[in-house]
Amino acid sequence: MSGVAYEIVDVFTDRPFAGNPLAVVYGAEDLAADQMHTLAREFNLAETVFVLPPTAEATYRARIFTPEGELPFAGHPSVGAAVTSMRRGLFPAGRVVQECGAGLLPIDVRDSGSATLTGGTPTLGEPLDPAPLLAMAGLTETDALAAPRPAGCGLSWVFLPVRREELADVRIDLPAAEKLGVTELCVFAWSGSEAHARVFCPGAAVPEDPATGSAALGLGVWLVAAGWLPPDGDSSYRVHQGIEMKRPSLLECTVTAEAGMATVATVSGQVCPIARGEIAVPPFIG
Predict the structure, then answer these.
(1) Catalytic sites, residue numbers
(2) What is the pLDDT of residues 222-249, one digit of tens each?
């Protein structure tokens, strides 16, 4: 059986076996979506990204799969695919454009093995009642520091701000999450320009993420809307994630705001190579 090349990398960390692991697959141009999905289930990581020739004015195209299905966009696959492809010689360091389901996204790739991703158009949902979300997370009604609400830059997350000491106590009630329809949740604590976060995907094969670029981007949108970052101009902030999972990660972020609304957000991080090889191509199923 023929195979395709892959690399395993850890994203948003400068050392191995931390950050968020990612499978990056090459040479899969002839694979159908169901074959890609089968490979993603085989890797069984939060995401697997397939680097393909572009169909638009882009450097490459990325198709991103979880074990459950395909995503239009995700942060750590975008950063990981860009740096890994640069290291493989597909393009030099500098600005590249990734084509994905969320559109054409610019990524600045550096020889040092890091990249800065500019997210898609910011989106902001209406404030939510904190009580059911807190109960779903195993917290009390006094633990929320502001109204939770959805926000994103290509992929939307529900953001729930709590005290730092509460993060370790979060336990997701899966039936409650299913009843509420919550599939993407970021519980975070904020101090100065630093966030400590835990990011959950209730019901997914990987129910907690150790580093989530799309959530870090959306957090900037939430912070501006909440008045926790300035309403105009550029702001920088950092997200610490994965600590409770013993996979510490660091996401360096910026957000640009105008009249109290985020207009652009970026997230940066290191990519650490772990393994490479070839994996068999699954049979066509469709």
Answers:
(1) 47
(2) 999 999 999 999 999 999 999 999 999 9
